[in-house]
Write a structure and sequence with these properties.
Order of helices and strands: EHEHEHEHEEHEEEHEEHEHH
Structural class: alpha/beta
Helix content: 25-40%
Number of helices: 9
Shape: globular
CATH architecture: 3-Layer(aba) Sandwich
Radius of gyration: 19 Å
Number of domains: 1
CATH superfamily: NAD(P)-binding Rossmann-like Domain
Strand content: 15-25%
Largest sheet: 6 strands, parallel
CATH class: Alpha Beta
Strand order of the largest sheet: 2-1-3-4-5-10
Distance between the termini: 32 Å
């Protein structure tokens, strides 16, 4: 099975390449700039045609959440128009598309874990651009899996786990928001789920359960609880450690509004694909240990 994934440097792309190396039944081809540039829609179809994929994974995105408030045109060009062009190219090639989206499509005021059928009310430019991308993907390629995820971390790129370890190396105490809840999600687990669901779609010729799915780590916490687990794990294995103090979202203002509740229910994905993510603590520990190993 050959997967073409958009982008070259994102956490999910890097994780797909990492996981793909361990398997002999899949080939991952990362397609990014300058050959494929989502701000230049004319580059998309030619770049994807050249990779001859069985399935396209639409992972490239504009992810600078706060910067998007100042650059809405770029955010929508990449996350909405660009995503639609990737899905359209997959349709022209006669293959399904797996598109990554976000918890930011919700306003975060719900009481429990969000289901795929819950109303989407984005509170930020980033969230609105990703919701528009979902709609564009669904409109042009009926064979789509839209995977909403949240709180993504990995050994690659910039993410919360790497930030906590870096800060702990320089200070004794770190203030972390405690009134936002969600499901920490390893990009390595996302990659595994993508490969699993892609195999199901490819092998089951009668598969017709296309649509939107939620895909996050098992279990929930808040940001400060996530930070404590990261740093407790680090200390246990000889890495940097700092105390974590709880603060409110209002104590750490940002340009873009974050959802207070980012919890997503994965029941639909589990039922359809018979796959469930590991407990977030286990996956976090694996990533922390990876980052503590000497280069």
């Amino acid at each position: 099975m050959r997967l073409a994934v958009t982008g070259r440097e994102g956490q999910v792309v890097a994780s797909l390449l990492e996981v793909g190396q361990r398997r002999n039944d899949v080939e991952i081809i990362a397609v990014g700039r300058p050959q494929l540039d989502l701000t230049r829609p004319d580059t998309v179809i030619e770049a994807l045609e050249a990779s001859r994929p069985d399935i396209v994974v639409s992972a490239a995105a504009y992810t600078a959440v706060d910067q998007a408030e100042d650059e809405p045109d770029i955010a929508f060009a990449v996350n909405a128009v660009g995503a639609g062009k990737v899905a359209e190219a997959a349709a022209r090639l006669g293959v399904p598309v797996i598109h990554l989206s976000t918890d930011y499509v919700f306003d975060g005021t719900g009481a429990g874990a969000y289901a795929e059928t819950d109303a989407t009310v984005p509170r930020s430019v980033y969230g609105a651009s990703k919701l528009a991308g979902e709609q564009a993907v669904a409109a042009v390629n009926p064979r789509h899996l839209i995977l909403r995820t949240a709180w993504v971390y990995s050994p690659f790129g910039k993410n919360f786990v790497k930030t906590m370890l870096r800060l702990a190396a320089d200070r004794d105490e770190i203030a972390v928001v405690a009134d936002q809840r969600g499901n920490p999600t390893s990009a390595l687990d996302i990659a595994d789920a993508i490969l699993h669901s892609a195999a199901v779609v490819r092998e089951d010729k009668t598969f017709d359960d296309y649509g939107i799915y939620h895909l996050v780590g098992t279990g929930e916490t808040n940001w400060s609880g996530f930070a404590r687990h990261i740093l407790d794990t680090s200390r246990a294995f000889g890495g940097p450690y700092a105390r974590v103090t709880d603060i409110a979202t209002s104590d750490y203002p940002t340009k873009a509004k974050r959802p207070g509740n980012s919890r997503l229910s994965t029941a639909k994905f589990t039922t359809t694909f018979d796959w469930n993510a590991p407990d977030w603590r286990k996956s976090t520990q694996e990533v922390v240990l990876c980052l503590l190993r000497p280069a």
